[in-house]
Design goal:
By secondary structure, the chain is an alpha/beta fold. The chain folds into three domains: 159 residues, Rossmann fold (3-Layer(aba) Sandwich), CATH 3.40.50; 59 residues, no CATH class; 197 residues, no CATH class. The chain has 20 helices and 18 strands. A hairpin with a 2-residue loop joins strand 13 and strand 14. Helix 7 runs parallel beside helix 10 and helix 10 packs parallel to helix 11.
């Protein structure tokens, strides 16, 4: 069972936000004070009404005290202020639409005695003194199902769980998640005969103490209230189960074993979400979990945000995640419609990446305004040569370069890979890297990989057969630039040093020095620039046939990534 959409009516600043579609991940974005947090809070409240209220077997008119105690709903705060005078008995409404599997449709028919077409809409009405769950189904069967709303709600609650991780994530947030995880897991024991026997023994041991307390209390109370006939202190079976399910605490040892509540804000924030991930991965429960996260970037260092993005992506593979954010890193480029723009207290799916950038206040450089994919290369000379090579070798890439959907940017040194990647991700661009296959290039990628910035699928190296290290110039045919070097520098490349197995820069250095020529970074960079211009002028003859494999692989990777949804 999955939540496929929800509608919010008359909740705080939101008068109506209809049919907000929910998939694996749903991202609510928008300026401050435009309603995205209110939409998420409305969903949180409705899911609590459904999954917590019914599970506690509250009557159909659920006492609002249950929600007040947990600060879930307060009519004076949560019903729109400008409507309160005209509608003193008004209710906030949230409609949750669920999608059922074929097996669940059959089970629904068996348990409830009604047929469904695969979707089940439930209407939560929450007022001053009560919250009600109704079936919002139109047509002939709607009235019949509404009469069975208690059973219908329990059917959903038995198959769906809900977790809420607030923007201010304290140790209490993490503890609540752990409590719910422990409760879920320990429920599986309650069908074990040995567990039942043990609980019965506990009840027998408690009975005489409770009887003695009851008798003592009766004696005291009769003195003040002579009409009292009896006083009984009891622990219900459910209360005993509840106590055993939820008595735990979290101790974190990061050099000093300390209760989580005494750790810093950043640790508590990550712990709450990390524990939620663990709960979803390790849970033996078959329930689908809908996880609502407010501003996951709160309290976190930029590197931790990248790690957290991967955590949420992993969560979304198994469960559903709904989050609010101001951070571009959490925007879903692969499925643009999953980004819901909340503005002027209304909500709608994003239609373009430019629209998302505008809402988040992202300002891309003029030459990157239309870019969906940025190819990061090591230097300006690589950018010059590769722009021409890619356009010559691939029609698809040529069109993308002309339209600006593919753009190249230079790192000005491989050590800047992590910084540049983050910079472009913050402008909602996807990133691919083409690096020299040397120690510096590999270390730069390994750092970006460890920081969660790039994956193995998002990088290619300029490799050459038979070379332990290589760089882009190793892919070029020396015939393209040999005469230029002879004329400009007085160096002949037919010598043994240039035919060695080292990478291009090392071979060129040895050739220059062997012939008594100056070689330093300035000479090297000047030479690379001149060679890049020659390659750009004649891309069709620039590559060695036997060493072009890595460039062909880069072209395939870029074409594949550009074919993905923007």
């Amino acid at each position: 069972m999955r939540l496929v959409s929800f509608t919010v009516e008359k909740y705080r600043s939101i008068e109506t936000a209809r049919k907000i579609a929910t998939g694996d991940t749903t991202i609510l974005i928008g300026p401050n004070n435009e309603g995205k947090s209110n939409i998420l809070r409305a969903l949180v409240t409705a899911m609590h009404v459904l999954t917590r209220g019914i599970r506690f077997r509250l009557p159909r008119g659920i006492s609002s005290r249950f929600y007040y105690e947990r600060q879930m709903y307060n009519w004076e705060r949560d019903f729109p202020l400008h409507l309160q005078e005209k509608q003193p008995n008004g209710r906030s409404v949230v409609i949750l639409e669920f999608g059922l599997t074929v097996e669940e449709v059959q089970q629904f028919r068996s348990d409830i005695g009604s047929d469904l077409n695969g979707t089940l809409p439930l209407r939560m009405e929450i007022g001053r003194e009560e919250a009600e769950v109704k079936v919002a189904k139109q047509g002939r069967g709607g009235k019949t199902l509404t009469a069975k709303s208690g059973r219908v709600g329990k059917f959903v609650a038995d198959r769906l769980s809900f977790e809420h991780i607030e923007a201010v994530r304290t140790a209490r947030s993490a503890q609540r998640v752990v409590d719910q995880l422990v409760e879920r897991e320990l429920r599986t024991l309650e069908d074990d005969p040995d567990y039942e026997t043990a609980l019965q023994r506990i009840a027998e041991l408690q009975a005489p103490i409770l009887e003695q307390l009851s008798s003592s209390m009766k004696t005291t109370l009769v003195t003040f209230l002579p009409a009292i006939q009896d006083v009984r202190i009891e622990i219900s079976p459910e209360g005993r189960y509840q106590a055993l399910r939820r008595s735990c605490e979290v101790v974190v040892d990061d050099g000093a074993a300390t209760r989580l509540e005494y750790k810093g804000d950043g640790v508590q924030s990550l712990a709450a979400i990390g524990i939620m991930r663990h709960a979803s991965e390790k849970s033996t429960s078959p329930l689908n979990i809908v996880i609502a996260v407010e501003e996951p970037e709160s309290h976190l260092h930029p590197e931790a945000i990248h790690e957290l993005r991967e955590v949420l992506a992993q969560l979304a593979k198994k469960h559903q995640v709904v989050l609010t954010t101001h951070c571009p890193l959490f925007v879903n480029r692969a499925n643009l419609a999953s980004n819901v723009i909340v503005k002027d207290n209304k909500a709608r799916a994003a239609s373009s990446i430019k629209e998302v950038r505008d809402v988040l206040g992202v300002r891309a450089a003029d030459n990157l305004q239309n870019a969906n994919l940025i190819l990061l290369v090591e230097g300006e000379e690589d950018k010059t040569a590769l722009s021409s090579l890619l356009a010559f070798e691939s029609h698809h890439l040529r069109v993308a370069l002309e339209h600006g959907t593919l753009a190249l940017d230079s790192l000005l040194g491989g050590s800047n890979l992590a910084y540049k990647t983050t910079q472009h991700m913050n402008t909602l661009c996807s990133v691919h890297a083409f690096l020299d296959d040397d120690d510096a290039g590999r270390r730069a990628f390994e750092k970006a990989l460890a920081d969660g910035l790039l994956s193995h699928a998002e990088v290619n190296f300029a490799t050459c057969d038979g070379k332990a290290e290589a760089e882009l110039e190793d892919l070029y045919d020396a015939a393209v630039y040999q005469s230029m070097i002879d004329k400009a520098y007085g160096v002949e490349l037919g010598s043994v040093p240039f035919r060695s197995s080292g990478k291009w820069s090392d071979r060129m250095r040895d050739s220059f020095r062997k012939q008594g020529k100056l070689w330093n970074d300035r000479v090297k960079n000047d030479l690379k620039r001149k060679i890049a211009l020659l390659v750009a002028d004649d891309p069709g003859n620039a590559l060695q046939k036997r060493n072009r494999g890595s460039l062909d692989a880069l072209i395939r990777a870029l074409e594949k990534r550009l074919a993905e949804p923007a």
